[in-house]
Amino acid sequence: xxxxxxxxxxxxxxxxxxxxxxxxxxxxxxxxxxxxxxxxxxxxxxxxxxxxxxxxxxxxxxxxxxxxxxxxxxxxxxxxxxxxxxxxxxxxxxxxxxxxxxxxxxxxxxxxxxxxxxxxxxxxxxxxxxxxxxxxxxxxxxxxxxxxxxxxxxxxxxxxxxxxxxxxxxxxxxxxxxxxxxxxxxxxxxxxxxxxxxxxxxxxxxxxxxxxxxxxxxxxxxxxxxxxxxxxxxxxxxxxxxxxxxxxxxxxxxxxxxxxxxxxxxxxxxxxxxxxxxxxxxxxxxxxxxxxxxxxxxxxxxxxxxxxxxxxxxxxxxxxxxxxxxxxxxxxxxxxxxxxxxxxxxxxxxxxxxxxxxxxxxxxxxxxxxxxxxxxxxxxxxxxxxxxxxxxxxxxxxxxxxxxxxxxxxxxxxxxxxxxxxxxxxxxxxxxxxxxxxxxxxxxxxxxxxxxxxxxxxxxxxxxxxxxxxxxxxxxxxxxxxxxxxxxxxx
Length: 491
Hints:
The chain has 491 residues and is of the alpha/beta class. Helix content is 44%, strand content 12%. A 6-stranded mixed beta sheet has the order 12-11-10-13-15-14, with helices on both faces. Helix 2 crosses helix 3, helix 9 crosses helix 14 and helix 9 packs across helix 15. It is globular and about 70 Å long.
């Protein structure tokens, strides 16, 4: 049987198409491109590489995704009290203070078996640096992602119900007079400041206290309100499982716009300095950039914190000894930022900031978004950038610096918390687990900080006093200043 030339042509084209299709399918299958890979290819086609990078990077924490296993186990182990409502007194200060207070409040609520938790508010610090001492109440989502918080804690601890605002209790007369509680004072035994020496005794002490003040037990029909008065740096990390400590802080993540802007800054840095970053990177990669927290704003100067000259020398010396080509600088005093840049240039170190990176062509929308944020929200972008710096330097008076260093310490522990600054005091028998974890970490000391990347050798020691140091971070300051943070600052 013979076919016309047109039919022969169509058959040949069909065979070529089938061959190409099968070859492409084979190659793709061989490279095991999964669901996320196909999604990225599609997104790249319709939105471009920047959109894919930003979307992935903003949802890829430096210390890994939230793993709630030990939080679920903890909540299952507690005895819950119907009608016991916990409220966190609105904390003051920057995000380092606020974050630690909120996490302590949630941890106390779990320990007490509270079945309701009022979404906390924040005492803001003014809309500009000149109004930093103004006390302005702002909602939870001034800093944090509210939906993520309630879902993360609520799914792991379904025994806890969330109340959106204190005013929602207007029709519950039994909560009108709250029990005002400084939780640390129930015990009176501390280590390193106000860190609880015997946290296992706290829940029984609370029960005794409430029985004395409210002889009739709280119930779903007759609930009672307990207000915790800003519990800062109180709950010892050594009391909980290392896996729990590493993950508990992830119930708090920054609001979406902040994370998106930070991911865009990271993209802009990658493009400008050709760093080879990937959106789905895990861990911290060596040799890219040094993160410096220059805390010399007017309030810090007025409080007599470490002066600019000392901070600048510490960071420049540290970056030079690590042979870092670039410093990402977080700070607010424009004069100090400019002076730092000039001094760094004299020793062949480049300096960049979020504002400078977003001022490049193509980031006008994100720069405008950044400008609409209040000053204490813009610093959250710096927080995200400092978290992923190859080496970080902070200053000991700043809870912000300590918070960044502690989050990064989870990366050193490969997703677990490794005890530092002493074990604290705990009645829980966790020594075997801690010893096992230490052996694991010791065995991995020569391993890369990030998968597939070789960690550089530590630089020579230098004389600047250090309150804290691990392989990824240094907090400069007197050594004795660091113990309370190392024992009780949630990462």
